[in-house]
Amino acid sequence: MGDSSAMDLPDLANLTVDNRYDVVRSIGEECVQEDELRALLQSGRTDLSAYDGFEPSGRMHIAQGILKAINVNKLTKCGFTFKFWVADFFAKLNNKMGGDMEKIRVVGRYFVEIWKAAGMDMTNVEMLWTSDVINAQPEKYWTLVMDIATRFNLSRVKRCCTIMGREDSDDMLASQILYPCMQAADIFFLNVDVCQLGMDQRKVNMLARDYSSLPEIKKKYKKPIILSHHMLMGLKQGQAKMSKSDPDSAIFMEDTAEDVNRKIKKAFCPPLIVKDNPCLDYIQHLVIPKYGVFDMKRPEKYGGDKVYHTFEEVVADYESDALNPGDVKDNLKRLLNEMIEPVRQHFQVDEDAKKLLAQVKQIVKSCSKK
């Protein structure tokens, strides 16, 4: 099966604005605003930039690994520089890895190593460590953070705190109130055109747009375009999204083939029903973006193989029972393992990567005991 994560597109010079718009827009479940994105691509600028931030937090699920590699490759192929904001500073604020910056850094390097092994083209990708970049220009950064903090009331900022995966704002540390203001400041500090984060980060991205709309601010900073990707469902019934605290709710990049097979076997996949079906969600948002098709293998006596070119074709067959949960799960196991296998091999064969993985496992183990 071919791999379209590297994007089988002609060179940038041969892509029309419409081609580029379609590819970039396909990344987002939501785009705020589409006309601004089209205007950006029509501008003729050669310094387009997009960003995402990530906290080094121990484990990487398959959406962070595979889906992010696909999306970054789409953007860089369309002329963007992609800036990864490796949020070691933020991880410390959020008390990840016990707030130990050295451990956070090790996990950050591990994430970068996974992306390389997962097929991310690093040619036009910048990895920026927040502590390094902020400490190089502290006055500029913290002035911006404080200005954002003075423009919005506490209630608005606390509503943004779900970006940290925290629903109970009363149980937060005082330092975590700064987090949304810092994340909004990142956008202007990095001077990016597009925020390419998940739908779970929408509130703080809209806070940034509201900030940039203030009369005295819009003269200083451009308004960011928000391109929010879909959040994969958890594998169990009723899980709107994956949870790192529930290992069986998601596929992780370090999962063995046995782990993947067990999780998919147990996954919720009701016959005939597409809505809130996590197995079909994986096909729509991982398999088809990765490979360009859903190449379904099946014994001839059960109907034989079939290649689905669109998710709509999958839906039609699933709702008519021409495609059943067993077909979906058997193929999902095969394809997810195929996606992860290059990463597994990298950490087994490359000596430096092997040592890094051992360090990360030790860090995660020690932090989980505290």
TrEMBL record:
One Pfam family in the UniProt entry: tRNA-synt_1b
Catalytically driven reaction(s): tRNA(Tyr) + L-tyrosine + ATP = L-tyrosyl-tRNA(Tyr) + AMP + diphosphate + H(+)
Protein's cellular compartments: Cytoplasm, Cytosol
Main subcellular location: cytoplasm
Keywords: Aminoacyl-tRNA synthetase, ATP-binding, Cytoplasm, Ligase, Nucleotide-binding, Protein biosynthesis
Top-rank lineage group of the source organism: Eukaryota
One GO-annotated biological process of the protein: tyrosyl-tRNA aminoacylation
Listed Gene3D superfamilies: HUPs
EC number: 6.1.1.1
PANTHER family xref list: TYROSINE--TRNA LIGASE, CYTOPLASMIC, TYROSINE-TRNA LIGASE
Entry protein name: tyrosine--tRNA ligase
UniProt source species: Spongospora subterranea
